Amino acid sequence: MNEPQPNLRTMTVAATGASGSLFTREMLRRLEGDARVGCVNLVSSDAGLRVMAEELALSGRGHLLEQLLDSAPRKINLLANQDIGATIASGSYPTDAMLVLPCSMGTLARIAQGMSSCLIERAADVCLKERTRLVLCVRETPLNLVHLRNMTQAAEAGATIYPLIPTFYNRPASLDEMVRNYVDRVLKHIGLPQPDAYVWQPGAKQT
Ligand SMILES: Cc1cc2nc3c(=O)[nH]c(=O)nc-3n(C[C@H](O)[C@H](O)[C@H](O)COP(=O)(O)O)c2cc1C
Question: Which of 9, 53, 65, 147 is the most buried (most CB within 10 A)?
């Protein structure tokens, strides 16, 4: 088990059953390679594992981290969503930020209502009570009134609603570039700006 390191960030990443596994994989690879990050705790819901398997063509649930990173993890702990006694379930554990990427409408609803019925929901609830940054990368379309109300409720409780919507003004040349740009933006939002991230310059790409 990797432990939090002094002076380095400790992050939680939760993958739930919404579409967007490419973003989860890119985020984990970035955090793993970031010298400012010492420890990452990853939790996936069952639906999250299922969607990852579909979208990333994973071969089973074994060696999940190795399959996502293409190498052995150095900083990432894989925690079971059923383990409500894991480190991140306690406010005494030094989490710097939690990303729910992607965030399903089901998990959004349960976080907004404080259900805490599994580790992901409990860890998010802890972030809200401890005023630790909680970023919900929600993905669904179209959005019904329940989804919209739950987003409002979560935002009022202190979460950032960061919809899984790519940018187009940077004129991404590929899906990979779209994914990288979104991940750059989320990382900047949680205080991990990326040196080669796109920064808007009016007219720079115009012909
Ligand atoms: C391939 C696939 C894609 C899905 N995409 C979404 C989605 O984009 N947004 C969403 O809210 N639910 C989506 N779902 C449904 C959720 O996985 C489902 O509601 C699940 O119960 C959520 O559980 P969780 O919140 O515990 O992860 C998808 C399901 C599958 C199988």
Answer: 9
- pLDDT tens for 141-184 read 999 999 999 999 999 999 999 999 999 999 999 999 999 999 99
For ligand 1, is residue 49 a contact (CB within 6 Å)? no
Judge if pTM exceeds 0.90: yes
Pocket-testing residue among 42, 43, 51, ligand 1, by greatest number of atoms within 8 A of Cβ? 51
Spatial separation of the C-alpha atoms in residues 67 and 25, rounded to whole Å: 9
Q: Is 17 in the pocket of ligand 1 (CB under 6 A)?
A: yes
- Asked if 9 and 88 count as a contact pair (C-beta separation under 8 A), the reply is no
Nearest residue by C-alpha to atom 14 in ligand 1: 18
Q: How far apart are CA 25 and CA 184, in angstroms?
A: 13
Q: Cα separation of 183 and 38, whole Å?
A: 18
